[in-house]
Amino acid sequence: MVAPPFLNLSTCRRSSPCSTPLRTRCVGAGLDKMSCRVGFYRQELNKTVWEVPERYQRLTPVGSGAFGSVCSAFDSKTRQKVAVKKLSRPFQSLVHARRTYRELRLLKHMKHENVIGLLDVFTPSTSVQNFNEVYLVTNLMGADLNNIVKCQKLTDDHIQFLIYQLLRGLKYIHSAGIIHRDLKPSNLAVNEDCELRILDFGLARQADDEMTGYVATRWYRAPEIMLNWMHYNQTVDIWSVGCIMAELLKGKALFPGNDYIDQLKRIMEVVGTPNSEFLMKISSEHARRYIESLPHMPQQDLKEVFHGANTLAIDLLEKMLILDSDKRIAATEALAHPYFVQYHDPDDEPEAEPYDESTENKDRTIDEWKEITYEEVISFKPPDVKIDDLEIEQ
Residue ranges of region Disordered (predicted)? Predict the structure, then answer.
């Protein structure tokens, strides 16, 4: 694939204020007067203690969230920069424990150029009895799409290449039977060569699972999630792709709802109120009555909404932003759309091995989740990665 001109990410980097790091080699008089695992060192960053193998040097905070903190680091073994994520309270509750196990297994399963993959996983614990910390090592990506949209205008060539890669990664994810559920610009990492990777599988679930709404960021959430259908399919991610693509074209979010009612109203102002065929598919009587109470809104002409945009881009958007998920285009079909004619290659759009979630669906105690997670950690085999494959940020 020939990429468009490179992106200037000098002003789009993720950044995070950090305190002066306190580091010790844990020789008995270190932090908390505790010794640590041989070959590891301990360092305090933003009031969080990190205990990592000595191969990972120059830890620098780059972000944090509800489920963990992330540092950049220099991997002295591969001579590359990486991202190290420390999971927050991974076994605090049954929900946390199941989520930790699922995120680790999903990352281990993903092996695709446009999907974040696992380079390493480790714990400072030497046995399952004292196992309470999990660290995940992935490629370091310098900026996310949210940062990029805010700091520069993208050309149509850039948008083609970015959305093609997003759909290419999504085809791989969906072929494993997985729904991402939380696609949004901040979960898409991009480097200066315009290469994209899909991030954050903490919320991903298999396609046949029963799921309730309010997971994805509201602005990118498919309407069927907000209508709280118990069953929905992989095209919830396609709706999110459509919202992301629309934002790249407009330079701002297409459906910036203040709450979920406002969100539905904004969606229907663009795509129109649904017909009776669609209403019959809504299992929630409350949701159906609410939609029926709305005034009729005609579908807008997207050529007017996206004035001056590539007509092929608009045609693709019209196939993504459809209320009826049964009629929404799939990732494989979208890749073959004429908008991607210069990139589409069926022989270079791989599929994944099916993802086995059987171990995730069993009821277990926290200790049992810890035990099988520990087994996943110690059984991890690093991928055979060429140095060039890791050169995501210099």
Answer: 343-366
